[in-house]
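Customer escalation, tier 2.

The customer says the design service returned an amino acid string that "doesn't look like it belongs to this structure." They asked us to rerun it and document both sides in this ticket. The original structure tokens are below, unchanged.
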């Protein structure tokens, strides 16, 4: 009877599959569950590799071609793709867990192993894609998500809290004339450990009426200490800011500290979103302060109307000295390794309206000759003004005439030149690079520069209304050792 009973028991298809063996190898044949796990794992990993490859392709192609020719260079395009990729990757991980609980039997190690591989490899692909495509280097030491900001690949999504406005009103001087010997200091990429030397240089220079801190303000998000450090040395001297890529995830906090300093310094001539779309006048100077390229202020093209409107207002009010200030440059307007970040239309707007262009971001110094065209394919020098030029050979700024200054020598680091970019004919002066080549290039024409010494951090100054001429300015770059790196004159035809 027991034998007959066994013969009468029905053998299910699952049992047949479970106990089947591969006649070739003698090993158990894969079960249905194992096949499902294998298929899921393959889909997850193929999908992840494909998306990671697409992101990397877009980013590298964008780096070479720039925002205008390829959207992969634009953080406003790349960041949503990354968010979608991250979300779908997490969903894939969840799906792998579902497969595990519904289809994997405890004793089926092959099934468990395949699901485990799919579950772990998918987020690894995400991490590798983001790291290779960008580097998680937007905010040093910051978490990926913090205070409403998201750090990705050198780009930052702006602080999601409500941004603060200046609350004042620009006041334009009669006929645009500034007081005589109006001196302003400009510097960017100010490291918290070295910046006091720069502030002491500014103080010792004498009669500096304002300081522009052009993005990447301290790299530590120590907002209150950042302001107090300035005030300990420079007191109530007004300062103005732009949003840098290392600032944006907590930009509201920097804005709050800036507003406090506006109160201390009695700065009432600024309007708009602080450091993002802000317009200030300072004793007759017209300052356009933009966060273009750094993450705040919306999509890249949305900054362009602000440039045109502000610069047209400066023109309507006969502002003699107009200055465009934004942190990130375009690749051809720097001498290191930075990529296109803001679009050429910003430079073209400043050129059209006769505004000087001051940027930072790359930890080097560079200053161009007089330019009449600025673009991806062509930069036209209309007048050569070498370092040390006198007032008889000034750069002219006016409609269709300008120059560009890059100064990221605020103490964070000193980087090496890109040999090809630094040799472009539009550069009149450069400073940086601790290598022997840099020493040989600059030792011959920088005062007090001794053999064996290295370039160090410095501040760019402009003194407006000099030699009794309200349309003449003397500009110069000086390092913290007192060496005069660059000096030239500027004449405004605005």
């Amino acid at each position: 009877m027991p034998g007959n009973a066994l013969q009468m028991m029905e053998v299910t298809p699952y049992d047949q599959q479970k106990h089947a063996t591969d006649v070739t190898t003698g090993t158990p044949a894969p079960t249905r569950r194992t096949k499902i796990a294998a298929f899921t794992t393959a889909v997850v990993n193929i999908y992840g590799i494909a998306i990671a490859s697409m992101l990397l392709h877009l980013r590298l192609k964008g780096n070479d071609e720039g925002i205008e020719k390829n959207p992969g260079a634009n953080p406003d395009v790349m960041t949503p793709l990354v968010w979608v990729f991250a979300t779908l990757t997490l969903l894939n991980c969840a799906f792998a867990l579902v497969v595990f609980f519904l289809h994997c039997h405890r004793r089926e190690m092959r099934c468990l192993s395949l699901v485990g591989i799919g579950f772990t490899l998918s987020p690894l692909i995400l991490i590798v894609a983001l790291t290779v495509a960008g580097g998680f280097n937007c905010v040093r030491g910051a978490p990926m998500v913090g205070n409403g900001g998201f750090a990705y690949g050198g780009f930052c999504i702006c602080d999601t809290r409500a941004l603060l406005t200046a609350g004042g009103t620009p006041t334009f001087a009669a006929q645009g004339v500034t007081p005589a010997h109006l001196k302003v200091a400009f510097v960017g990429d100010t490291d918290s450990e070295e910046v006091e030397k720069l502030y002491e240089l500014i103080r010792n220079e004498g009669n500096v009426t304002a300081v522009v801190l052009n993005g990447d303000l301290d790299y530590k998000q120590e907002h209150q200490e950042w302001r107090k450090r300035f005030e300990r040395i420079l007191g109530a001297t007004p300062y103005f800011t732009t949003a840098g890529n290392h600032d944006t995830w907590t930009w509201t906090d920097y804005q709050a500290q800036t507003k406090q300093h506006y109160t201390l310094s009695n700065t009432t001539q600024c309007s708009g979103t602080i450091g993002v779309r802000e317009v200030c006048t300072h004793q007759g100077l017209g300052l356009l302060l933009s966060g273009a390229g750094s993450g705040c202020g919306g999509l890249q093209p949305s900054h362009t109307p602000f440039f045109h409107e502000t610069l047209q207002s400066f023109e309507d009010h006969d502002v003699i000295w107009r200055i465009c200030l934004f942190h990130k440059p375009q690749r051809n307007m720097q001498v290191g390794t930075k990529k296109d970040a803001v679009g050429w239309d910003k430079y073209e707007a400043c050129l059209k309206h006769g505004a000087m262009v001051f940027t930072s971001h790359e930890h080097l110094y560079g200053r161009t000759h007089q330019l009449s065209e600025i673009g991806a394919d062509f930069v036209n020098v209309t007048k050569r003004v070498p370092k040390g030029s006198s007032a008889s050979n000034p750069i002219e700024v006016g409609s269709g005439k300008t120059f560009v200054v890059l100064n990221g020598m605020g103490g964070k680091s000193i980087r090496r030149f890109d040999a090809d970019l630094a040799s472009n004919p539009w550069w009149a002066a450069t400073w940086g690079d601790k290598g022997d080549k840099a020493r040989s290039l600059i030792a011959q024409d920088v005062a007090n520069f001794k053999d064996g010494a290295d370039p160090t951090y410095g501040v760019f100054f402009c003194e407006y209304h000099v030699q009794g001429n309200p349309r003449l300015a003397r500009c110069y770059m000086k390092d913290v050792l007192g060496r005069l790196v660059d000096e030239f004159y500027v004449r405004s035809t605005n």
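Tier 2 assessment: The sequence is consistent with the input. Confidence is low (pLDDT under 50) at residues 1-27, 60-76, 132-155, 438-444. Residues 288 and 324 are 5 Å apart (CA to CA). Sent an explanation to the customer and offered a walkthrough call.
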